[in-house]
């Protein structure tokens, strides 16, 4: 694109917004970012609602693009697999991949965001303003109205285009459906479950209280607890539980006695690691889990939704941040196409990207059920053993659905979903029919899985499920 329009406003200085500001600044645009919260580098703004982040290959693509791969690696703790905990305290480490070099990383949201903000602000053509809430956007004039947090004074800023990276509660997206100036489709679907953040603190000697290099899961069918390691030897623990259903739910866990009874019965080994359990439980809020889809992401070639503002997802594939970072990579690719104007850029970006963001939203829901329930079942564990063996013996010929999504950053989420679901169905069907088992010759399994997967893909194509 002939870059005649140089001034860009970005609404939101979270992970996606700070990355986008950095990249657009590197490309020579004049970028002004407005963030409604205080500067997280000076004030703790997590408020018990920051699920730890799983950083993987798709996110790392973006770090390579902006030249920060080495700096981000310093913030990462590798997690090679899921450490499954049963009610008796027994554990099983289930690797994410049969290839030793494939793993995900636990990373601090605040540390990563601070790094991106510092890098963006180091550019003379990028300015970031905090405690400035966006009240709405006027599409006709390409202006946004903001309010100072302290004084409540309102002011209007204009630009050549406005890009919103302000998350699930996006002010720009709200303007899209309230103004009713064009046909705008929007859906917001909540799980029946919410989440509450807890913590495992470091041991008295400053060491980790449990195994460091894994994502810990306590799957219990209808609910679960997970824990991710932090650099200070603590773990960020998250309870996922129904608001209303089951013997224990967020609506009836109202006393310390009930909370302790629940954890003693369901998560006794986790409880032993958390003497701070009751304090954390009643101090930290319970937050909802929802999926947002909408269309179009742009209007009149002057406004655009990117990241969670366009496609918020639940956190169960560890891809929310990675997907938003990949948004910026895909947007950058479209800018390289030298299209004639912003409208062409935005239309091409959405056409290229939306099928993949819809796919990862659906996959994240799938993984919610897998993590809280299926991972503890024998048939699923057999499937994972076979997949690990296939990936180990045939690293170039087989990738599980999880590997396709998480480690194959050069294929889209939609392709990964279609191929991965077909493979899952093929293996589970053959295990149930006793056509294969963990004792079957691995070369035979590969051929059977390939043949059956192809049949399923072809059947789906005929049925127009693609």
Describe the structure.
By secondary structure, the protein is an alpha/beta fold. It has 3 domains: 7-76 and 108-188 and 290-368, FAD/NAD(P)-binding domain; 190-288; 377-462, no CATH class. The chain has helices at 15-26, 57-66, 69-73, 109-121, 171-179, 256-266, 268-272, 277-283, 308-311, 320-335, 342-372, 378-393, 401-406, 413-432, 442-462, and strands at 7-11, 30-34, 53-55, 77-79, 81-85, 91-95, 104-107, 126-129, 132-138, 143-148, 154-158, 161-164, 185-200, 215-219, 224-229, 235-242, 286-295, 298-299, 303-305. Strand 5 (81-85) and strand 6 form a beta hairpin. The relative contact order is 0.14. The model has no long low-confidence stretch (mean pLDDT 93).
Mean pLDDT: 93
User: C-alpha Rg, in Å?
Assistant: 23 Å
Output the number of helix runs. 15
User: Based on helices, strands and strand pairing, what is the structural class?
Assistant: alpha/beta
What's the N-to-C terminus distance? 33 Å
Q: Please tell me the total number of domains.
A: 3
CATH topology of the largest domain: FAD/NAD(P)-binding domain
The unreliable regions are: none
CATH class of the largest domain: Alpha Beta
Strand percentage lies at 15-25%
The count of β-strands is 19
Q: Which sheet architecture does the biggest sheet show?
A: 7 strands, mixed
User: For this structure, what is the CATH homologous superfamily of the largest domain?
Assistant: FAD/NAD(P)-binding domain
Output the strand order for the largest sheet: 6-5-14-15-16-13-17
Question: Given the C-alpha coordinates, what overall shape results?
Answer: globular
């Amino acid at each position: 694109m002939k870059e005649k329009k140089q001034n860009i406003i970005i609404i939101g200085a979270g992970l996606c917004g700070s990355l986008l500001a950095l990249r657009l600044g590197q490309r020579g645009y004049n970028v002004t970012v407005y963030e409604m919260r205080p500067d997280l580098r000076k004030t703790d703004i997590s408020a018990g609602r920051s699920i730890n982040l799983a950083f993987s290959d798709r996110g790392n693509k973006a770090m390579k693009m902006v030249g920060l791969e080495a700096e981000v690696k310093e913030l990462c703790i590798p997690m090679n697999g899921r450490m499954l905990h049963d009610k008796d305290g027994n554990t099983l480490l289930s690797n994410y991949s049969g290839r030793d070099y494939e793993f995900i990383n636990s990373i601090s949201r605040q540390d990563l965001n601070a790094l991106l903000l510092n890098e963006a602000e180091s550019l003379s053509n990028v300015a970031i303003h905090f405690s400035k809430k966006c009240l709405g956007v006027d599409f006709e004039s390409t202006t946004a109205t903001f309010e100072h947090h302290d004084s409540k004074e309102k002011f209007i800023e204009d630009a050549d285009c406005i890009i919103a990276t302000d998350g699930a509660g996006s002010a720009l997206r709200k303007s899209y459906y309230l103004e009713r100036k064009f046909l705008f489709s929007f859906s917001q679907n909540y799980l029946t479950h919410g989440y509450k953040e807890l913590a495992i603190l470091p041991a008295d000697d400053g060491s980790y209280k449990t195994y460091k290099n894994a994502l810990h899961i306590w799957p219990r069918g209808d609910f679960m607890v997970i824990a991710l390691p932090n650099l200070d030897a603590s773990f960020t623990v998250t309870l996922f539980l129904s608001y209303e259903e089951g013997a224990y739910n967020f609506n009836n866990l109202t006393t310390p006695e009930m909370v302790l009874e629940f954890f003693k019965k369901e998560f006794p080994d986790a409880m032993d690691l958390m003497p701070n359990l009751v304090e954390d439980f009643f101090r930290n809020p319970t937050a909802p889990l929802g999926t947002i889809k909408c269309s179009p992401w742009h209007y009149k070639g002057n406004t655009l939704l990117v990241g969670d503002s366009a496609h918020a997802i639940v956190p169960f594939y560890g891809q929310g941040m990675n997907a938003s970072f990949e948004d910026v990579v895909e947007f950058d690719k479209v800018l390289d196409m030298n299209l004639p104007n912003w409208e062409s850029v935005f239309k091409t970006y959405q056409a290229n990207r939306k099928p993949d963001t819809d796919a990862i939203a659906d996959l994240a829901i799938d993984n919610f059920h897998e993590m809280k329930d299926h991972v503890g079942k024998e048939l699923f564990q057999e499937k994972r053993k076979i997949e690990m063996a296939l990936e180990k013996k045939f690293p170039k010929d087989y990738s599980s659905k999880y590997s396709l999504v998480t480690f194959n950053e050069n294929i889209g989420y939609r392709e990964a979903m279609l191929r991965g679901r077909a493979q899952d169905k093929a293996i589970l069907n053959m295990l149930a029919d006793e056509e294969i088992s963990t004792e079957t010759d691995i070369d035979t399994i590969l051929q059977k899985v390939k043949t059956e997967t192809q049949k399923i893909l072809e059947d789906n194509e005929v049925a127009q499920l693609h």
